């Protein structure tokens, strides 16, 4: 674990790099820095060992004021503790599709990405090695420079039939739920947000990849703003748990406090980008229970199959890409004798086009206010298209949809400091360096110009590692 110091001790020194936050973006940025860099990590929450998390089952959360103007319920998931949301994620780590980086060029939709898949590919591979990812080497969707660290989990019976029939669109899931390596093997019980056996990669159980003698941690303190002199970041203002504020000097500052927290820090710091705080977004997801004419389950982890049959193509000019997950952990079985397992739990996850009106602003007290007007017709059109085409991607009969509902969150906070080439339409460049301020990085999924249908964690981690290597 990192050696911890107090905010008062931190303020007595000058650091090469100061990082606000301690989850995926923060730690992979740190991993990319030169080995002799003196780094201070500031985390506003406590350090909470996994055993304590299991005992309490109540992780510290960051609660945000939300003005929800949409028709559906909405909430955001953010944990204020060392390791952040790495303590409670499901461990799904698909790479972004190569076409996700060219959505605007190919279909005239969304905003331009300043990078391409090939720019991130080697960093994807490095992050996968650290996380000990289990996944399929014969991946027809994502070009790879090398194999996964570990083989994929045993697939469910329905996934086996789908992959045998359509290996071009179906593949085993790439995940951070262990199937070999230094962690306990996945227990396949489907309780993945807080894994009871600690099989899923987290910053805590993967800490050896990030700890260094030149790094220190201040827990229980919050970065309120960045000090800026002559257009260059010179340090931050820290607030202790008792409300005491101190200035800490640093040669470089990186904010990695999720897309809402980052926007608040940058706004308090006086950045004036016209898009800062705007374009908050995440995917739309619909969960479904579907009866089919074939057996399911008996796979090696909670989700074993991904379908790309609704992902890329000309439809993306008007309807979002959809990634379909096939769950192995049953919620309910059929009641007909002999057909108990002939049922699927599916999740359809659609990309969305970020809207400027979904945004983060500061209240009179300096705390973030979140305005949410909802998702776009583009995302819902993607979901409708996939639902209508279910029978086309399964090699067995689809007998009927038992139930379906939209989720109020995918637990992916994205946007607010999007990357790009033009300072008028973006906050950072392709290396996550703020256009307005020298020596200031804004890390994490807040940098995404568009959402992708894929889970963001692997991509934001790869982006952060690449940013750290640029220092």
Offer a quick outline of the entry.
This protein has a single domain (3-469), classed as FAD/NAD(P)-binding domain, CATH 3.50.50.60. 19% of the residues lie in helices and 23% in strands. It contains ten helices and 17 strands.
Explained architecture:
A hairpin with a 5-residue loop joins strand 14 (359-362) and strand 15. It contains ten helices and 17 strands. The strands form three sheets. Strands 1, 2, 3, 6, 7, 8, 9 and 17 form an eight-stranded mixed β-sheet that branches. The protein has a six-stranded antiparallel β-sheet with strand order 5-11-12-13-10-16. Strands 4-15-14 form a three-stranded mixed β-sheet. The chain has a single domain, classed as FAD/NAD(P)-binding domain, CATH 3.50.50.60. Helices cover 19% and strands 23% of the residues. The mean pLDDT is 96. With 471 residues, the chain is α/β, with parallel strands linked by helices.
């Amino acid at each position: 674990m990192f050696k911890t110091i107090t905010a008062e001790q931190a303020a007595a020194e000058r650091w090469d790099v100061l990082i606000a936050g301690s989850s995926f973006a923060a730690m992979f940025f740190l991993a990319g820095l030169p080995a002799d860099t003196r780094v201070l990590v500031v985390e506003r929450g406590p350090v909470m060992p996994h055993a304590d998390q299991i005992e309490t089952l109540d992780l510290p959360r960051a609660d945000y004021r939300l003005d929800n103007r949409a028709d559906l319920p909405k909430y955001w998931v953010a944990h204020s503790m060392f390791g952040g949301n790495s303590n409670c994620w499901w461990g799904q780590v698909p790479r972004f599709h190569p076409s996700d980086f060219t959505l605007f060029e190919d279909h005239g939709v969304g905003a331009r990405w300043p990078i391409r898949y090939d720019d991130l590919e080697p960093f994807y591979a490095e992050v996968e090695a650290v996380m000990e990812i289990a996944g399929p080497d014969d991946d027809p969707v994502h070009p790879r420079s090398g194999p996964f660290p570990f083989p994929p989990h045993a697939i469910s019976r329905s996934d086996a039939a789908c992959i045998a029939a359509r290996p071009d669109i179906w593949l085993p899931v790439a995940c951070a739920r262990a199937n070999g390596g230094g962690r306990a093997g996945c227990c396949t019980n489907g309780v993945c947000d807080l894994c009871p056996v600690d099989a899923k990669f987290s910053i805590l159980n993967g800490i050896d990849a990030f700890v260094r003698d030149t790094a220190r941690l201040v827990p229980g303190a919050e970065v309120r703003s960045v000090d800026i002199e002559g257009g260059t970041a010179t340090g931050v203002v820290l607030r202790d748990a008792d409300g005491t504020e101190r200035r800490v000097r640093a040669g470089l500052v990186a904010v990695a406090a999720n897309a809402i927290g980052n926007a608040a820090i940058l706004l308090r710091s006086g950045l004036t980008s016209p898009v800062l705080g705007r374009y908050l977004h995440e995917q739309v997801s619909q969960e479904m229970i579907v009866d089919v004419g074939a057996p399911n389950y008996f796979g090696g982890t909670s989700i074993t199959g991904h379908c790309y049959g609704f992902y890329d193509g000309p439809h993306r000019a008007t309807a979002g890409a959809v990634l379909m997950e096939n769950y192995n952990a049953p919620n309910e079985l059929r009641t007909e004798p002999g057909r108990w397992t002939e049922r699927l739990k599916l999740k359809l996850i659609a990309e969305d086009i970020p809207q400027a009106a979904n945004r983060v602003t500061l209240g009179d007290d300096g705390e973030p206010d979140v305005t949410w007007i909802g998702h776009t017709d583009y995302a819902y059109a993607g979901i409708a298209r996939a639902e209508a085409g279910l029978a086309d991607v399964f090699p067995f009969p689809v007998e009927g949809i038992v139930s379906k509902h939209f989720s109020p969150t995918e637990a992916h906070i994205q946007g607010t400091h999007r990357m790009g080439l033009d300072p008028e339409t973006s906050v950072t460049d392709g290396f996550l360096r703020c256009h307005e301020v020298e020596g200031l990085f804004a890390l994490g999924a807040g940098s995404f110009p568009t959402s992708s249908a894929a889970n963001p964690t692997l991509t934001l981690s790869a982006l952060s590692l690449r940013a750290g290597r640029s220092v």
